[in-house]
Backbone:
């Protein structure tokens, strides 16, 4: 079987990555996750790309992980960490590694890994009918990896409830909780999301890079250091 390939299209300064498995609910195998991380980094390394969009078609944005055919037989704990857990974590890390904003264009429900990937993105656009859920506990799985993607984006109390209850939340509640950035009406979702993407991607790459870099680094800095870093970055960009 040939290696799976995601559909990547470039429209102006935007790289669109289609999850490309609508018949499987856009669920991804571990191998596909490693491939997605590579595609994300490749798109981000292209100096002509100002914005990266993760999108899909079909009944789900991403139904989660496709574990069919997977086996841990014969693997050491280290190999399980690298080859199995590492696939999921590499996607989250790749989203961070992309120097420009990564936008999740969530047209339909996101489940498990799909929800975590959406919340890990810098901007998450959701259609009004969409639901997000983290159902891992229903399968006796502690979703620590999904939680790590949401740390700092979903308030601790809300994240605890989402994880322990496994309840699905609608798009409006997802926005209130920090899962989604913006909710657009289902009927006009594609046009509204495209208008936002076109406007944002028209900004200089250096400006977009600087904003993402500052938000990532300053979050973990003391107030004084965050202030100093803000001034230093802006001085460098404006000089």
Residues:
């Amino acid at each position: 079987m040939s290696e799976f390939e995601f559909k990547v299209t470039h429209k102006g300064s935007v790289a669109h990555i289609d999850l490309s498995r609508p018949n499987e609910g856009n669920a991804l195998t571990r191998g596909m996750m490693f491939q997605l991380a590579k595609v994300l980094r490749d798109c981000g390394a292209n100096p002509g790309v100002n914005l990266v969009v993760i999108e899909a078609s079909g009944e789900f944005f991403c139904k989660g992980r496709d574990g069919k055919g997977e086996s841990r037989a014969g693997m050491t704990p280290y190999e399980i960490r690298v080859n199995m857990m590492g696939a999921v974590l590499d996607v989250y890390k790749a989203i961070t590694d992309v120097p420009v904003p990564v936008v999740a264009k969530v047209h339909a429900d996101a489940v498990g890994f799909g929800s975590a990937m959406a919340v890990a993105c810098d901007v998450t656009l959701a259609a009004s009918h969409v639901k997000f859920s983290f159902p891992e506990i229903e399968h006796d799985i502690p979703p620590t990896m999904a939680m790590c993607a949401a740390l700092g984006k979903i308030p601790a109390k809300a994240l605890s409830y989402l994880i322990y209850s496994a309840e699905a939340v609608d798009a409006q509640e997802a926005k209130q909780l920090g899962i989604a950035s913006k909710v657009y009406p289902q009927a006009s979702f594609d046009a509204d999301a495209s208008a936002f993407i076109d406007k944002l991607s028209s900004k200089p790459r250096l400006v977009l890079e600087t904003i993402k870099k500052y938000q990532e680094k300053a979050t973990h800095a003391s107030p004084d250091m965050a202030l100093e870093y803000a001034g230093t970055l802006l001085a460098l960009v404006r000089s």
The beta strands are 7-11, 14-18, 51-55, 60-62, 102-106, 109-111, 123-127, 131-133, 169-170, 182-184. The mean pLDDT is 92.
